[in-house]
Design brief:
It contains 24 helices and 24 strands. It is an alpha/beta fold.
Length: 714
Amino acid sequence: MLGDCVEKYLEAIKIFSGPLKGIDLAVRPHSAPEYKDETMTVFQIPIYSEQRCGKHQPSHSPGRLSPEQSSDSESTENEQHLPDGVSQRKGGRDPSLVVAFVCKLHLKKGNFLVLRAKELGLPVGTAAIAPIIAAVKDGKSVTYEGKEILPEEICTPPDPSLAFVVVECPDEGFILPISENATFQRYQGQADGPVALVVHIAPERVLADSRYQQWMERFGPDTQHLILNENCTSVHNLRSHKIQTQLNLIHPDIFPALASLRCQVVSQNSPHWPAPYPLLSLHGVCFCLLQEESAPFTVPTVRGECLLKYQLRPRREWQRDALITCNPDEFIAEALEMPNFRESVQEYRKTTQDGPVPAEKKSQYPEIIFLGTGSAIPMKIRNVSSTLINISSDKSLLLDCGEGTFGQLCRHYGDRVDRVLGTLAAVFVSHLHADHHTGLLNILLQRERALASLGKPFHPLLVVAPTQLKPWLQQYHNQCQPILHHVCMIPAKCLQKGTEVSSSEVERLISLLLETCDLEEFQTCLVRHCKHAFGCALVHTSGWKLVYSGDTMPCETLVQMGKDATLLIHEATLEDGLEEEAMEKTHSTTSQAIGVGMRMKAKFIMLNHFSQRYAKIPLFSPDFNEKVGIAFDHMKVCFGDFPTVPKLTAPLKALFAGDIEEMQERKEKRELRLVRAALLSRKQVGGPEDSEPQQKRAHAEASQSPQSKKVRAK
């Protein structure tokens, strides 16, 4: 059943993210016999919850629709259209079943002691030694030239057959079936060999249960226990922590320290950070996301960390040499050693102190938090597209929701993430490329959990998206787990200017969207990217207007829809000089994006969705001005920050000087190749006698090209 689900899921996502090559799926049902290779034998142990009774029915939160009923099932705009070959059958993982694994290492024969064998006069180095080696490794004595030789004389002892266990106990209903399982009992009595390690995938409430702890104790004092759950804290994505710590030195409010930083504490008394540079946002505290208080144990217990290893052979031991360590003091020291970095920060702060405080600074909202500012695939520094708009202290929405969006929320907010999810009123999905929508499923599931933890009633999330998103959600709902009750979907096409909405249900949802988010208008328009790609414009009741381009080439429809915007968030996937590539990929260059904002008469422009070739920072365009800023992951801006953001350019250039220089060199080499290609083409047309004058003309034309002008301007 689960294998069928995975196959169907892979088939479903292919229609959105293109061909998925190299994915070979091999499924072994839990009822299959053991798996065996040259290292170990793996036994599958199906365990059923004691609460199992007929067909599983998930609990319903107040006001929650049943999983079998879509929240907008009456809407003709949201008719279910499934891909060819997709079954309407309900299926998926049985929540009353988990599968545990007992992995038993094969007995490892001892090593033949060559030097000792020579001392005893055995025929080492001849064909006659082979049967002797085979016999003593099997534990048998041999007789050579009338003398009996015991195996322990010329062979090390065999390595015993150890086992390790992996068990999942998702809730208290599985504790009794696990503790009474006959297979586990045999290993606890060591009838089937000693157990070196037990891996527990279980929440804290299960681990704290006395019945479960007694079951753990029955493995004996020599068994190690590894805990894997929400309380395991690790430094994920060290590069992201590093760059955020360094950006925080420039402006601690616009670049707040990551709340989930679980590492050495950085204080304002750090020897690497002088008095004029206080780390305002770290507050000398180390943050950690803990969902529940950790349970105490009487057995040897270790909590999981990234790259933590347990070695079974030749010696049983924990290995921590590969663990990621995070030392912000090192990041700070590295930044302060950058040429001109200190001076540029001092100069920027001096200009901001001397300048007037803008009127917008009085208001914290709206607050724009960039959760993902890269394109195509997640990378170490820039995640894929997602922007959180905190409309007020209790209302927010997401503009796109690429994979990893929930993880970014956790890194940004730490233990406040549930509160943020509780304020989430809507999600806008611009188009159906994977880097813009595949994080939606986890957001929906985590939001339900967050509302329950906050004691708030469950209600579906409003999702504005192309109607083509619905088959994907339907597919997941049919084959994996109920999800449609999480969503009230508003087709993005219904919010285009002049569109008549024929469905009363969609009209109701649009009114609910505007009311919930305090908006006078939520308008969409088709943009120049893939089919069914949309941009959007939000007009708040207080008068501000925010425009989001999604992915697009320069689009006149977007310009008209966004006229006089307070803020334009526009993609700038590629650098200037790559206009042809941008057109092929239906994206915008930096200057093209700025040009859209200028024609729109936007008050400010934030550029994002950078190609991952610009991992840390994109190349600056000569068109940059006091109305343009560059987005970074975890960057937080309010309208009152508009005058400040352009002034951060000098410190940013100093911090990333090496990266900018490298990108500039690549650009110059690319332009030189273009010049050479032009010369070769003209030489083939004009003949060799005309090559020298044409070479001069080509160089002259290249020096007058926009790309070359931009190179000199930098």
